[in-house]
Amino acid sequence: MRINDVNRAGGIQPYKKVQPSKADGYDVKKTSNRDDVQISTEAQQALQQAKLQGIGATEERLAELKKAIQNGTYEVDPNKLAEKLLPYL
User: Fold this and answer.
1) Which residues contact 65 (CB under 8 A, 6 or more apart)?
2) Where are the domains of the chain?
3) CA distances (Å), 49 to each of 33, 44, 54, 61, in order?
4) What's the CA gap between 52 and 59, in Å, rounded?
5) Can you give the pLDDT of all 89 residues of the chain as single tens digits?
6) How far is residue 39's CA from residue 46's CA, in Å, rounded to a whole number?
């Protein structure tokens, strides 16, 4: 008895049996693998309220810092700087 194509790597393709096809009754469509994020209305409202409460203080602080830098009166506290850099070293 003679067996052909014993060492042929492409002879068996099991992955093709797993994939659904139109012949199996499935409607195969090409879809993109894209994630979709949906934010609830409650979360959107909470985000808007947080922005409204925090933006004023942040913008005021930035304006103060810009003015101090332009005037040359902004000073860096070396101890605070060292404390902030210490965890990264």
Assistant:
1) 74
2) 41-89
3) 34, 9, 9, 19
4) 11
5) 566 656 665 556 555 555 555 665 656 566 667 778 888 999 899 888 877 776 666 778 888 999 999 999 999 999 999 999 998 88
6) 11
| Distance in angstroms (rounded) separating the CA atoms of residues 49 and 43 | 10
Overall residue count recorded for the chain in this entry: 89
> Which residue bears the tokens 């409202």?
45
Reference 84, options 19, 21, 76; nearest CA is 76
Which helix (H) or strand (E) segment holds residue 44: the answer is helix 41-71
Residue 76 corresponds to which tokens in the numbers above? Answer: 């860096």
